[in-house]
Design a protein that fits this description.
This protein has 402 residues and is mostly beta strands. 13% of the residues lie in helices and 57% in strands. The chain has 2 domains: 75-214, no CATH class; 218-400, Porin, CATH 2.40.160.20. It comes from Croceitalea dokdonensis DOKDO 023.
Length: 402
Amino acid sequence: MRKTILLTCLLLFFQTINSQYENGYIITKNGENKIGLIKNQNWINNPERVYFKTNPNESEQTIEITNLSQFGIGNDIKFIVSEVNLDISSENINNLTNNKNPIFERRTLALRKLVDGKISLYEYQFSNGTRYYIKKPNENFEPLVFKKYLVLSNQVGVNEHYKQQLSLLFEEHRDALKKKLINLSYSRKSISKLITEYNLLINSTSTNYFEQINNKVKLNFSIYGGIENTSVSYKFRNLATLNPSFNDISRSMFGAELELLVLNQKLGIFSGYTIKSQVSESVVLQTSIAEITQVAALSYNNNSWSIGARGYIPTIKNLNLIVSAGITVEYVSDFSITLDVSRIDENFLRNGGSEFIGFGLAYKKIFAEARVFSNKMFPENVSNGVPVDDSNINFRIGYKIL
């Protein structure tokens, strides 16, 4: 149940940061240009409607793309709305036929601009796959044809007519780009790169929005240090009155972390390794016999490895609220609890895991975060006691080197 609640909260949080309003514009079919805020949903499929506000305090408007001629967010997300030929053929191998020609339907679509220049490149993603379009100024959108089909019941052929289309388009620079045309794949990266290169060859200005999108995917390497507060309890099997509790154990820690930032650097997937100082604590226990006490001593070493996700919520310039969640695996060695009078000693190796949730702030390359961990259970295959559970919270301050 605890893991389900954690996962549900995490999914709801990341859905929230993945649907934030950002500065943008819309142009209606009537040519009216409106500046405001558009909900950036990081569309997997091209949108059929836009959620728009003229200011943060206004209620949300839902605008169908059929009422727009274009819209955009920031400087790198631009959609042009037009009626085009859409190949509705499926790319699912189970739905392939022996028809190698595209099946076109006229539809009004929001096409995402990938390259702007003498030749512009557009993309449309939907349930049947991805389609690319090219366009010259004052001309119609031309679909680049790529289709898989069945040659035999167990053999798939590919119609790569898009290579011939581009070859005819490149004209006098066809020979210079011949090798790249042969090796061209029907993908955003490959076609964007080739169209950009052609635009530069003919001395045309060219903006590659695909490269700008890629620049919003980033890998960070960070180092951090901090303190951890831990509580440990233990229950002996035969000495119920001598169950020691070690509370408020503080120790230092330091570590390193790799983080991949995606979704316009609003979501990070991270993995880190933490080295912690040794725990060495003791408590005085009152026995059932008056005036007789025992000293319980606790000692162990452990390091931890964690993996999780972190969301960044912009507040003011360069300052982000961060929320993270994940799992951690503890590597514990040389664990012992000793009672001096009874001479009971436990010593075992334990590897276990727990979930955590964290909150903090990030300013430029500096970040601070507090993490709260669920209780962790030690193994039950020990001779003199039952599982130890330990709960902890830690606080870390770090610096992003890359």
